[in-house]
Amino acid sequence: MSQFIDQEINGYKVQKAIGEGKFSTVYKAMNKEGNVVALKKIKIFDMMDPKQREKCLKEVKLMQPLDHPNIIKYLDSFIYNNELIIATEWAERGDLKKLIKNAQSDDTPFEEVQLWNYILQIASALDHMHEKRIMHRDLKPANIFIGGDGSLKVGDLGLGRIFSSETIEAYSKVGTPLYMSPELLHGEGYDMKSDIWSLGCIAYEMAEFKSPFKQSEKMSLMDLFNNITKGEFKPVSNRYSQQLRDVIEGMIVVDPQKRLDASTVLQKSKEIHNTFLDSKKTPQIINVLMMEDIYEKLSLVQYHEYFCIPLKKKPVSKYYFSLDENVNQNQRFYYFVELCYWLMSLPKQKKSKMAQPIKLNYHNVEETARKLLIDIKAWGIKLPEQLGSPHISQGCGDMVCFILNDLLNRELIRVNFKFESPNFGKDMESSVIQVNKIDDEDLVEIQEEENENEEVEQDELTQSILFYHKKYNNEQTDYNQVPQDRQVIETKVAINEWTKEFNRVEKEFSKFEANLKVNKLYLKDYERTIMSISKCSKQLSLLSEHLKSNEVQQIQQQWIDYLELIPKLETKVTESIPEDIQITLKQNRNKISDLQLQISQLNKGNSEKLEIDQQLNQQLLDVKERTPVLEDNRSKQKQLINQLRNDIRDMDIKIGIMQTQISKSYFHTNDVLSDEEF
């Protein structure tokens, strides 16, 4: 279909090829309304007979009525130049396979709330499909796409059933069945719970960045089959809750009867995900207090004049980065990114502090977040090692406030801002903030002081949190005390109305007080975690210094010398071996290669037997379906069935003979090798 790029096909303008799978090639196209769609060309459609093609078209059309936010919408299907073309909804942000790969390369595990959210979306899609009596059969990360809003969408529906007879053969040639259930691999009867097995394997891979059954890259297909059949895998790590581990293990169960179904997984994931959302609705007092300081410091660096006006942006509120308000999440995140880059650019700007527009990837939040964290670390801010793009991608929260506060503090220190205690009453008008510019010598002294306090700065996040916690405790107001110079305000509002309002406000304060208690417990746990991280950091620093010592370097140099000596010794040993022994060793290697070739032929024979068994079973089913109609041909049908059974028996005997011969050859070769060694 590459010859049709930049041409119109059945009302679709093909733009470019974007991906290729085992059964289809995907192209980006545009319909008549100007909307971007995905066109799939089915590879094996031209290999089918007319009846198979008609069945394939019916299966695709069965998918069109499915309407769910987490399912790729099928828009159209048609035949063009004897090829099946399927038009589907466009997912602009790639697939789950790419998302997992990016997180693995960044060494940033998914947060548990993210895993529950992804499991919830996929389970919701499967539950909707299973209610319609539709199975997927080929669920894997590459078939789960990501929409423009970040939601997951299950794709390639119906194709699993179309290709079910081809799947095992295709996997044995070009891939590995990492997500196929044991009953589907063995060609046994399977039901909707086969999709749940696949979902469990996907959830495990998101949590551990590897398949539950693939122990190494060099694992053979037969060993992988055996691991899947046994259903034995390493448990999910303890960094996730027991609830998440139980759900994942409940989906990867060999016995389909004991395996969880889609509705159960959906219900559990929805309940636990909602608990995470409810906990996030609690006001974060520390963030609110820190954001108030950030708001004041922004005015000190003349943020309105040098940032808002040049970039035509509205000033932020006092809670913009601290609470998850009803604002556009992406807009808030990119506001935070631009603000950070402006603050980091101020030391380089000698004449003008005006913010300049910067080029950002406004279509990929995670990529922009990763780049920002790298630039912040390179700029000099020390961030926790476990900090990743998910911690700042929402544009609010404790880490966002911490980064902004640190950048503002460094800028204020750079320009030598000095604050005086406020004077009230008559001297209020004379109370001003003293701003003194510093020269290069003073800047060197400040840098020397920073170097002396480097150990203190390593725990800057902990100190910042403790500071705001102390500030919050000290700023509690006693509302029972009324100033003496305050006059009583008389009102004409009825007393009962005041009583109702008083009761309403009192209830609100009670809820707020309960939330405060929860936040204090959270803060204590957070402080303990930060302290343990700080201790580990110091230990790693000591270990790093030890590795740089002269003794360790001498040992490393000795190992390098030994490694350089090994090839020379091998050459001498090889030269000392007699020529007849070298010829014998070469012959033995050739025999081993022949034996390995015979073993691979045996594996191929097993695969062919599996394919023949499936074809014979299908023929038996076809014969049984025709039995009620062809009543006069019962004797011929019985003969055909007996003939098929005899063919199966003969094939089993042939395979057994081949296995016996190869085993004898294998043991004979081992005996010859052992005799030659003696």
UniProtKB/TrEMBL annotation:
Its EC number is 2.7.11.1. It catalyses: L-seryl-[protein] + ATP = O-phospho-L-seryl-[protein] + ADP + H(+); L-threonyl-[protein] + ATP = O-phospho-L-threonyl-[protein] + ADP + H(+). The keyword Cell inner membrane does not apply. Keywords: ATP-binding, Kinase, Nucleotide-binding, Serine/threonine-protein kinase, Transferase. It holds the Pfam family IFT57. Residues 12-276 form the Protein kinase domain. ATP binds at residue 40. Gene3D superfamilies: Transferase(Phosphotransferase) domain 1. One of its GO terms (molecular function) is protein serine/threonine kinase activity. Transmembrane segments: none annotated. PANTHER family: CAMK FAMILY PROTEIN KINASE, SERINE_THREONINE-PROTEIN KINASE NEK1. This is non-specific serine/threonine protein kinase. It comes from Paramecium tetraurelia. The lineage of its organism: Eukaryota, Sar, Alveolata, Ciliophora, Intramacronucleata.
